[in-house]
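Changelog-adjacent note: as of this version, every example in the card shows the full chain rather than a window. The one below runs 720 residues end to end.
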Amino acid sequence: MPYTPPNPKRLVNEVSSIVGGNRLEPRPRSREFNRSLRAEVRDAAWLLTRQWQLKEFRAEDRGMPVEAEIVLEVSRVNQVRLNTSTPVAFTQERLPLPLDALVQGQAPVVDPGLRLQMGYYWVQLLRQAGLTSYVAPFQTGTYALEAQNDQTPGHLAEYGSEYVLSEAHLMLRTLSGKAVDGYRVFEEVLPDANAVLAAAGAQNAPPAEQQQLREAASAFVAWFRRLYTQPTGANASAWSIPDVSYRFAAAAPTSGTSPLVLTAPEHDGQDMHWYSVDVAASAGGFQNTANVVQPVTQRFVPSEIEFAGAPSARWWEFEDGKVDFGKVTADPSDFGRMLLQEFMFLYQNDWFALPYTVPVGSMCTVKSLVVTDVFGQRYDIRAAGRSEQTEEDGTAIDTDWGRWSMYALSEESNRAMSEPRLFIPPTSLALQEGPDLEQVLLLREEATNMVWGVEQLVSDGLGRGTDGNAVAARVTEYLRRHAPAAATAATTSPYAYQLATSVAENWIPFVLTQTGQGVVQLEQGAMLRYVEGVNLPAADSVVQPRTSLLNLGAPTDNYIVREHRVPPAGIRVDGNYRRARWFDGRTVVWYARDRSPGRGNGSSGLAYDQLLPRTPRTEPACFGITAATFNAAGTRIERVRLSQLTAQGVPIEPVQEKNRAQLLDMLIGQDEFVVLGTGGSTGASVELVTLPSGLQFIQVAPVPANPPAQDSLGTLPVVP
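Full-length structure tokens:
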């Protein structure tokens, strides 16, 4: 039969088709579902044989628990010791302070911004008390907030350290004679409120005014204590300089003769949880108050443990489809994941929960737990690892009570031992942390066998952190330009001998020393400041740390760190402000430090006894100050020819009419600028104007293309 191919021209709707439908419905033989719900099996003997083969009949016959009686010993932490100080009471009736704020709270960074804030509040207190006449003595006397003005040799380093922080320095110059150094007032009245009388010059004032001044001083101290949580009294700080960490201990009473002491010898300043402390071996000066510990007995109805995705125990009930543990895959070596799946699918209904609310800041110990099943039998449930049962051959079952377990506290003297206690520390939950204000790296340098404290972040004077490397470089450049030039002997030698190279000012040395017992430790040393081409007086030749961490302790105390506390990778210590809201709605703010691992070894570039080629230092050709005059108001005006500007070595586009605002932004707040240019280019003039209020600003205007004949080389100081 010849094959006839299909005709593609035929339309689909022309093809005949049969369209129909049918619905299949079950027809039950009975209206009852009793037999179906029984889930009968046809071969029960086979199932029993399989159970016998898998040794399922060896399981113990147990009934469902219907009642549980638990005896607890609950005691709250009532004593705290910070570092090596004497234990003090920690009242928890109203939980006045979070434990992490009490332990981590350090004195805030005292910068010009904080001094101004405190001074403003002190002036407000005086005015509210009707003591306005006493404001002026604080604004103009010893307690006035003023900028550094002494630029003579011997004070250049102190002036330059403030001068390079341009915003803070300009603020201080603007407020000179108008603001009060509030922190200096705080230090004066902190020991005794009567000191405010001498500070205000009110020794002969009426008794009523003297009493108002004392009350204002007491209110001022209390306000600052509320504003920032900080140590009070001598040796009240938990920060340990030798350990570069926090040290504290807390005690809770027990029914015995000694309290339960929890110690944290190396708290890193991060979140504080139950695992942050260990059980101390001795009382360590804490007192026990056994009468406040009362056993708590409660009865519960145990309930099965439930979680999302758990197998359902009821017939015809589908599990939650949002969580599908059946799709969890595991490698043959991933025993942890396989054990977790086995627990979820097979043993989930073998575990029961007894709810009990543990108070915040308490230590909870389970003394006994008795469970009653449906047959009326009572079972004494012991903690994991403390069972007294044995196998048929006499082998003990689960007697390793010292093993690690969740929420159990380890003993300080024996890390392998743990106690089944639950500690809920009274700490803040929703903690807010500000940006880092200070950052110090303690790193090792193998070439010099030293440890350096590198100040990566330092305060900018207004409550923010700024690059410590840039600040150190600007201080060095300021001294190079303003310190007296060093006398150099005429020589024709092509080489020069260098005793030692310079190190950045933010690198603070720690040298290895030994105690009388031969213990190696790190002691903070002093680095001499070396600036090429200048002769620094003795008062300006020693580098001082800028961060509060490296300035801890009295000026005469040795800053010593235990040598083993700085590992080969180094450590990093950050300082920032933290804020939390407590149970009663109060806001708690404190300055804390956070220790974390470092980034490895470093190199300071320090080298000794070098013979270097003598290369004369050359300055780029530039047009400098063209005229220095004073107007009728006594304002100094400096006209400078600019064609290209470099700020800290970064070139800027040629100055034109359209980018005067950009030039203005670059000039304000900078140290010095070197002006580069050629004779025929068009430039601009810069006028430094000082208003009667002391505020300075810069005006930019075009100047002729041809520079005057009296042009000379020089630089333009924005704030002379």
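Structural remarks: The two ends are 113 Å apart (CA to CA).
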